[in-house]
Specification:
- By secondary structure, this protein is α+β, with helices and mostly antiparallel strands.
- It has one domain (2-112): Nucleic acid-binding proteins (OB fold (Dihydrolipoamide Acetyltransferase, E2P)), CATH 2.40.50.140.
- It has 1 helix and 6 strands.
- The protein has one helix at 96-112; strands at 2-7, 12-15, 22-30, 41-46, 59-72, 78-93.
- The mean pLDDT is 85.
């Protein structure tokens, strides 16, 4: 499965309780290019020890296996989330605010020279 969307939370390094292996986890909001008003949200687990180098707001392509993760909420009610066990998470574009800041700094450097 492939999903294109924006990183909604800062990736956090975690460790598997059963294997002790490290992974990175964050929430992703899928980009919508149709008439659906409500976006689809996923929890993404990048199954690598190395930092994926992603920041909140980055536009990414995630490739992996889709699963459902069921658990009890704080109120004790059964709930769940869509989970992507990611083989790959590639940054396609930086977050809009960072890109605008970099473009402004670049144009100021060119105007000074």
């Amino acid at each position: 499965m492939q999903v294109f969307g924006n990183v909604a939370t800062t990736p956090v390094r975690k460790e598997s309780k059963s294997t002790g292996k490290a992974y990175w986890e964050y929430r992703l909001c899928e980009s919508q290019r149709n008439d659906i008003d409500t976006p689809c949200w996923y929890t993404v687990r990048v199954m690598k020890e190395a930092n994926p180098g992603l920041d909140k707001g980055d536009f990414v392509k995630v490739t992996g296996k889709l699963k459902t993760d069921f658990y009890l909420s704080r109120e004790g009610k059964p709930t769940g989330t869509l989970l992507i066990l990611a083989f790959e998470a590639t940054k396609l574009a930086r977050k809009a605010a960072a890109a605008a800041t970099d473009e402004k700094a670049s144009s100021e450097e060119h105007s000074e020279s």
